[in-house]
Amino acid sequence: MTQVADSGTAQRAVLFDEDRPLALACGRTLAPVEVVYRTYGALNSARDNAVFVCHALTGDAEASGPNGWWSTMVGPGRPIDTDRLFVICPNLLGGCRGTTGPSSIDPRTGQAYGLGFPPLAIADLVTVHRALLAHLGIERLHTAIGGSMGGMQVVQWLIDAPGEIADAVLVGASPRLSAQNIALSAVARRAILEDPDFHGGDYASHGVRPDRGLATARRLAHVTYLSEAGMAQKFSRAEPEGWASVDDGARWVAPAYDVESYLEHQAAIFLARFDALSYLYLTRIMDAFDPFAAPVALDPASRALVVSFDSDWRFGTAHSVALAAALRAGGLGTVEEHVIASPWGHDSFLLDVPAYIEVVRRFVAP
After folding, report:
1. 227 counts as catalytic
2. Residue 141: strand pairing partners
3. Which of 299, 356, 6 is nearest to 147 (CA)?
4. To bridge 102 with a disulfide, which of 14, 277, 307, 325 should be the other Cys (CB 3.0-4.6 Å)?
5. DSSP state for residue 24 in the 8-state scheme
């Protein structure tokens, strides 16, 4: 049993090696598998106050703190209260923030895996999560929580290990992507694949990155994460001062409106922290997710909170309704549903929307 830390700093664990490789859903194996994770709060003596945070597509292990991507939800006095709960958040398998992924070095070749990295499934991510939990000496979770792709991981965990999660919080999640969702991700992937610097996924050996394609993918994604009403509130339609005197040619290429500058900023900061191959792999994982294609048997002693937002058109309320119905059909003990009013679209799950924050706080409270 490893000694758990109460630091919030990044920690590393090799959870699978050549003697005990990770068996993947595709039939292949992977080793070694290193995971970067962070913990917040303190594990109690009964080891029953652990909360597992599953991050979304482009998240990482830094869920809380000044730079935490979910500091609205996780931290002292927040719904996932680190003054009383022990929080674990790893970077995903297939990611690019320290956990083994396609940009990691393949020990067989000494080069980055690239597209030689094996295909993954949500079930593989959960297998690694569960291995991390065992590494920490924790047998049952007080709560598992995730938004968007993070919610998919929690759903898979409920199916794969009935009884290991007492309470599940699923926010803006989907049990099965629509054709529209797959199409949007396909356009984003195509932008990466057609970047001249992609080099068939072997861009690391060429000393370049397909940043143009990845930036375009991120711009498109951000449009889907916001709602029309939210964008109208957030961005002005006014042209910048002096725009009337700008050279005619420049008018067609230079960002003019607030929303354009926002998308350029989001693309720039994304390029500084994410890798194109991880984007390809993780979006494909989401496309294939269909955990209720066959009957499932869930733990009747477990509970789930299913939250959606009325302005989220990417993973709208219909997705959450279908998810809640599937959980009930699978025998989960209690399934509570809430539709939260918010103008901020899919991004609402990351924001301090009071009604949403309070629903989660009440569900997770002792």
Report:
1. no
2. 165
3. 356
4. 277
5. P
pTM to 2 decimals? 0.95
Q: pLDDT tens for residues 211-260?
A: 999 999 999 999 999 999 999 999 988 877 766 666 766 666 777 788 99
The DSSP string of 262-326 is HHHHHHHHHHTT--HHHHHHHHHHHHH--TTSS-----TT-EEEEEEETT--SS-HHHHHHHHHH
* Mean pLDDT over each residue of the chain, to the nearest integer: 95
Q: Which residue among 81, 302, 346, 348 is the active-site one?
A: 346
Interatomic CA distance for residues 336 and 52, integer angstroms = 19
**If one looks up domain 183-284 in CATH, what number appears?**
1.10.1740.110
Q: Which residues pair with 246 in a beta bridge?
A: none
b (16+ CB within 10 A) / e for 186-200: eebbebbeebebbee
Q: Tell me whether residue 346 is one of the annotated catalytic residues.
A: yes
- Specify whether the CB–CB gap between 199 and 337 falls below 8 A: no
Distance CA 54, CA 63 (A): 9
Residue with tokens 């003697």: 19
Residue 285: what pLDDT? 97
Catalytic residue among 81, 124, 195, 312: 312
Overall size of the chain counted in residues: 366
How far from 156 is each of 17, 96, 151, 240, 250, CA to CA, in Å?
A: 24, 22, 9, 48, 50
**Residue ranges, CATH 3.40.50.1820, the chain:** 11-179+290-364
Is 312 catalytic? The answer is yes
Q: Which CATH superfamily, name and number, covers 11-179+290-364?
A: Alpha/Beta hydrolase fold, catalytic domain (3.40.50.1820)
Residue 229 host element (H or E): helix 228-234
**Which residue among 104, 148, 302, 311 is the active-site one?**
148
Query: Any idea which of 227-241, 270-284, 303-317 has the lowest mean pLDDT?
Result: 227-241
Q: Which two tokens stand for residue 163?
A: 């009884």
Give the separation between CA 29 and CA 144, rounded to whole angstroms.
Answer: 26
Query: What is the tens place of the pLDDT at every residue in 97-136?
Result: 999 999 999 999 999 999 999 999 999 999 999 999 999 9
